Automatic annotation (TrEMBL):
It catalyses: UDP-N-acetyl-alpha-D-muramoyl-L-alanyl-gamma-D-glutamyl-meso-2,6-diaminopimeloyl-D-alanyl-D-alanine + di-trans,octa-cis-undecaprenyl phosphate = di-trans,octa-cis-undecaprenyl diphospho-N-acetyl-alpha-D-muramoyl-L-alanyl-D-glutamyl-meso-2,6-diaminopimeloyl-D-alanyl-D-alanine + UMP. Pathway: Cell wall biogenesis; peptidoglycan biosynthesis. InterPro entries: Glycosyl_transferase_4, PNAcMuramoyl-5peptid_Trfase, PNAcMuramoyl-5peptid_Trfase_CS. The gene is mraY. This is Phospho-N-acetylmuramoyl-pentapeptide-transferase. The keyword Transmembrane applies. Belongs to the glycosyltransferase 4 family. MraY subfamily. Keywords: Cell cycle, Cell division, Cell membrane, Cell shape, Cell wall biogenesis/degradation, Magnesium, Membrane, Metal-binding, Peptidoglycan synthesis, Transferase, Transmembrane, Transmembrane helix.
Amino acid sequence: MLMLLVGLAEQVSALNVFRYITFRTGGALITSALIVFMFGPAIIDSLRLRQGKGQPIRADGPQTHFKKAGTPTMGGLMMLVGIVGAVLLWGNLASPLVWVVMMVTLCFGAIGFYDDYLKVTKQSHMGFSGKARLAAEFVVAGVAAWVIMSVGNEPFSSSVTFPFVKDFVINLGIFFIPFGAFVMVGAGNAVNMTDGLDGLAIVPVMVAAASFGVIAYLAGNAVFADYLQIHFTPGTGELSVVLGAVIGAGLGFLWFNAPPAAIFMGDTGSLALGGLIGAVAVASKHEIVLAIIGGLFVVEIMSVIIQVAWFKLTGKRVFLMAPIHHHFEKLGWTESQVVIRFWIIAVILALIGLSTLKLR
């Protein structure tokens, strides 16, 4: 549809607007939000009917969480429907980067869906094997990293850039594939760990998506990239359309996920969205900046790693409960206090990350 409209632009000048990435990003945002608003209630009702008891609640979690029993999960499905629909309508489907990012998103979403399915059917927090899940994620991410490296310009396509430094890059060669895969898998699981309170994960995801929408657009434009003295990465501008769709779908989901949540995102959504942002970071050569913009996600997953490692070593815990948002709940913060304060942190980190575009 998009290519048809662009092709007709020579006859109808008004259709030239479809050539502009900014216009199509806005269109994708609105479209994905409308799709989620329209189909969200039906999806929620269907999932509630099929899941019965809904997502299992951790027995060792904060007592306030038990009132959420019966809330359905797999809400990521409604977001994926909105994102895919908007990208098919507004995205440039001739772009290999669009396809590879969507591949990561849908494959990670499928892995998360299977994990959610096992948890709901077994009424247990244990999905399928953690090792098997990570292995599947790394296979998908490895293929994606290889494609990103292959469609780029060598040797830059296999290089890593650094924020605040203009010319310093390290060419990883073939080792760029495991590095890129690690970024995507890490991002997916970090967002997954953050998804534990109503609205906690989705707003930082939208903040990160907006930030990387700006980065992808500027890095994919030779004029802007030269002015900002950042590395030009051809084709990444189209990823702004995908990220616009993420923001729109996130707004639609937040409508239903706002306390008290009518549905949880589940691994279906958190893995998919985290993998998507990780893939965009790899494609736009801003992998390290992702650790800044997504610093909240990094803290969340590191709190789990530290807790598990320290307990195995000493038999003691560093935090009252991990991930860290539960630690603050145990300290007496209300759920809304944790969520809103973490949102504020996410916005601050995003602004710091965006500052790397000019501070070089």
